[in-house]
UniProtKB/TrEMBL annotation:
Transcription regulation listed as a keyword: yes
Name of this protein: GntR family transcriptional regulator
Pfam families noted in UniProt: FCD, GntR
Domain HTH gntR-type: 18-85
Keyword match Transcription regulation: yes
Source organism: Amycolatopsis bullii
SMART domains in UniProt: FCD, HTH_GNTR
Protein keywords: DNA-binding, Transcription, Transcription regulation
Lineage: Bacteria, Bacillati, Actinomycetota, Actinomycetes, Pseudonocardiales
């Protein structure tokens, strides 16, 4: 299966100031995070380079960056594919997520003020998508919610780490449950976390976030037996 890159032309303005491989990788990373490019899909050089208006060499450099981030994998004589995760990946990702996100809230508690607008916007987007029963978009809003939580720390390095980790997390989400049963309980947890943050109860928000992440990990591991760990990364499903 080859990715549908028809929407990438709209991202060309993002390259006007800098047509570097890093910028191309950032665009492709966002497409992976948003679930547009799914695990197992082939990242076609001619299709993507044409859509973005960049050279093959630049695109190959961006692929190398994505491979370093464990978001893509190169298979000899087959091409570059969006990576698929194993159960071990899920367990490790959630170790990192608990350390990063909970640490971000502890750091935010030390600041004189925090801007919750992006956290609120992500939750609002999730509720709107849920009302429309657009569950993939609820998943995207959830990713944005957790990125916004990490951003509260005011650290670009922490935020960059979170962007990579969430992009990896999304690799598993898009192959599994896109249903009310899967996402709705998490929306309620988001509401609780935001409510505690608005009241300045950072300890309570961190505790709620920790429970959320442990529940999410357990749910994904439950789903992982048929969905992950059974094939080599990049094998189309």
């Amino acid at each position: 299966m080859t990715v549908d890159a028809s929407g990438l032309e709209s991202a060309r303005p993002l390259l006007e100031r800098s047509g570097t491989a890093e910028r191309v990788a950032a665009i492709l990373r966002q497409y992976i995070t948003d679930g547009v490019f799914a695990p197992g899909e082939r990242l076609s050089e001619p299709v993507i380079s044409s859509a973005l208006g960049v050279s093959r060499n630049t695109l190959r450099e961006s692929f190398q960056l994505l491979a370093h981030e464990r978001l893509a994998v190169h298979e000899l004589n087959r091409g570059v594919f969006v990576r698929e995760l194993t159960t071990e990946d899920i367990e490790d990702l959630y170790v990192v997520r608990r350390a990063t996100e909970c640490g971000a809230l502890r750091r935010a508690a030390e600041l004189s003020a925090v801007d919750l607008s992006q956290v609120e916007a992500a939750l609002r987007d999730g509720r709107v998508a849920a009302a429309a029963e657009d569950w993939p978009s609820v998943g995207t809003a959830s990713i944005h919610f957790h990125q916004a939580l990490a951003d509260l720390a005011g650290s670009e390095r922490l935020s960059a780490t979170m962007r990579q980790v969430l992009a990896e997390t999304r690799l598993f989400f898009v192959l599994n449950e896109n249903t009310r049963e899967f996402y709705e309980p998490f929306l309620d947890c988001h509401e609780q976390i935001l409510r505690d943050l608005r009241r300045g109860r950072f300890d309570a928000a961190e505790a709620a976030l920790d429970r959320y992440l442990r529940d999410a990990e357990a749910r994904l591991l439950e789903l992982s037996t048929p969905a992950a760990g059974s094939g080599s990364p990049g094998t189309p499903r």
